[in-house]
């Protein structure tokens, strides 16, 4: 557990390094599947808080337990693609990956509308900068400390935008803007994720956990070892975890009955797309 807590602290630094501002306020990058220690003895923190966005959680809270179970039962039918009455690891893994992709697509679509002001299907750096930072960088904004903070954020975001902009034309296509918002999903953005985490630690905002050479700092190679520890399929790990916790007869697959008996674990899991699928009609899924 100590190792997991250390890893979680490093991943939280990475999440902070990846945050993206909006017009009104900064929106923090949501924690990935790997960013929290799995400890169900203190409640389903991994399966709930790591997967529930703030607004989705509010929506889910409006459902009664019976409504939640009914909607979850409908989702189970969709997960069972071969209609044999069982949810295999492969089916659950595929469903969670699908939920991940859909979340990213919807998040990008939401931000795209905010920043593509001239609706030309592209987002230029100046377009993004003016929408996000114009108020904070205006001469009338006289809070010196906050202005310095936002200037630092602007520098960081410009570096990230230019890294995502693979052809260097100063304009982000939808794919490049996706890399800007979700750099952890793109191999060519991983160095930037590591550098951002190191910068936070050197600025005194993080602990040197993982400092293998004991010099008091986290260097790029050390952070990469923690933040990007190889090709880990977190959707695969989550599918295994959910099956392990709910498979009462230990046949390596789960039934609707087993899932509904543990509904409070699934409703906060990414299986339900951050809780959102439980509020949608069957034909919307």
UniProtKB/TrEMBL annotation:
Interacts with PCSK6 (immature form including the propeptide); probably involved in the maturation and the secretion of PCSK6. One of its GO terms (molecular function) is calcium ion binding. This is Reticulocalbin-3. It is found in: Endoplasmic reticulum lumen. Residues 67-102, 103-138, 152-187 form the EF-hand domain. Residues 1-19 form the signal peptide. Pfam families: EF-hand_5 (PF13202), EF-hand_7 (PF13499). Probable molecular chaperone assisting protein biosynthesis and transport in the endoplasmic reticulum. Required for the proper biosynthesis and transport of pulmonary surfactant-associated protein A/SP-A, pulmonary surfactant-associated protein D/SP-D and the lipid transporter ABCA3. By regulating both the proper expression and the degradation through the endoplasmic reticulum-associated protein degradation pathway of these proteins plays a crucial role in pulmonary surfactant homeostasis. Has an anti-fibrotic activity by negatively regulating the secretion of type I and type III collagens. GO terms for cellular component: endoplasmic reticulum lumen. InterPro entries: EF-hand-dom_pair, EF_Hand_1_Ca_BS, EF_hand_dom. The keyword Aminoacyl-tRNA synthetase does not apply. Belongs to the CREC family. PROSITE patterns: EF_HAND_1, EF_HAND_2. One of its GO terms (biological process) is protein transport.
